[in-house]
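Format notes (please read before filing issues)

Several people have asked whether sequences and structure tokens are stored in separate files. They are not. Every record keeps both together, in the order shown below: the sequence lines, then the token lines. Line labels are part of the format and must not be stripped during preprocessing.
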Amino acid sequence: MILQIGKYGSSRGLMADRAAPRRLVAATRLSRADWIASVSMAISLDFRRVFARIHPFEPVTKYRFRLESSMKIATRAQSVVMATALIASAFAAAPLVTAQENHVPAPENLKARTWFQDAKFGMFIHWGVYSALGDGEWIMETRPINRTDYAKVPAFFNPIKFDPAAWVALAKAAGMKYITVTSKHHDGFAMFDSRLTDWNVVERTPYGKDVIGMLAAECHKQGIKLFLYHSQLDWHSTDYFPRGRTGHHTGRPDSGNWDAYLSFMDGQLRELLTNYGEIGGIWFDGMWDKPEADWHLARTYALIHQLQPQAMVGSNHHKNPFPGEDFQMFEKDLPGQHTTGFNPEQSVSALPLETAETMNNSWGFNLTDEHFKSTAELIRYLVRAAGSNANFLLNVGPMPSGEIQPEFAQRLTEMGKWTKQYGDSIYGTRGGPVAAGPWGVTTQRGSTVYVHVLDWNQPVLALAGMPRPIRSARLLRDGSSIEFSTVKGGLVLKLPEPQPDEMDRVIVLELEAAK
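Then the structure lines:
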């Protein structure tokens, strides 16, 4: 048994009839008010022991006892009851969290939203111990692999070639402005040094280093924002119960404490938001597994906004945004397109938008997936996302060695050449005045409209919907003038011949100033 407890509600009474602790570590004590405000608990049962923690989350100022002992079944049950009663009384005394239905974004959050919309291009990283198996991040479910066997997988994860500086430099060279990385995926494995469980990269792998900590430090150093993907779904936790749509072959008992799981999840989020500097936002996934469950979103979202007011909250639940969310995401789909079947009821909100896509057909490393999208396809997707007023979050699934596979690196490098030349037509823009079509899209910044001709082989292009008269038109690649004529209800452009392998003919229109 492991117990972590604050100054008040001392462990001594609870543990008076237990064996003496093998190891005791005490640090600075918290006040009673601080402890009650920050306490949370996670209890999980397996076939060997009870694992209980009552944890004051402030990372430095805490009073920590660690007790390990073997217990008989009756003793295990008694300990669970005692810990549950203790934490229930603590939460009863704690102040209620402000409901997110009435959430008013802080000025820092509104500023972050504008920055996010200007950024336009980010790197998604799906990396975990599952990469060692080379068959994607869902392998625990798709194979399936039970919890006991999957517990052996971290021993094979030793990414000695992981170079966070190289990862961040590659993202920046591609023209990406932020990175979103998996802190915990559906297998429940923490890619950071969590004190709430030993199911983490520091405790369970031969690598033994805090991957998120290393990447966060490098992002701060190189000036790129870090967002954290965090799975609400958990195939490892016994307290993730009742089960949802997935995770039925993991060998877990048909019992658990749902509230304890949610408190554990909030505890890990507190660790991430207090131990790794400024975080751009939290990218939730997995709520779709139990869409009718009470996820205590108000409490979780309030926690995030209280710890880091600028941090943006988004959730890949495939529904319209809930109160307290700061951006809306679309998985493998442009906003409003409904091409995947994930989101038939999802509409496009007024929040900042983001679409996420893979470079092949896999999120996590897949040894045999060679269905790589071409650089041209990826650039056109970036452009179409911008024309839909959305960011493009492009995924890489690093290898178990810690390297980003060369096919991904090559495409990112080639995309970087394009963004260096044509980035003005993407960064800091919003969706343009002309509706997207098979021919392409428009983007706009102030009085400048960028016409992105992606698929059009005719010599002229007619556009409707310009808000004001056009002063000039030029080709972005070389500044040469473009002939145009104004017609009733629109504009006709005479297009230059495309260059060989040209992925996007970008025409810059300067509008007359607004009156």
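For reference, the curators noted about this record: Residues 73-93 form the longest helix (21 residues). Residues 432-511 form a domain with the Immunoglobulin-like fold (CATH 2.60.40.1180).
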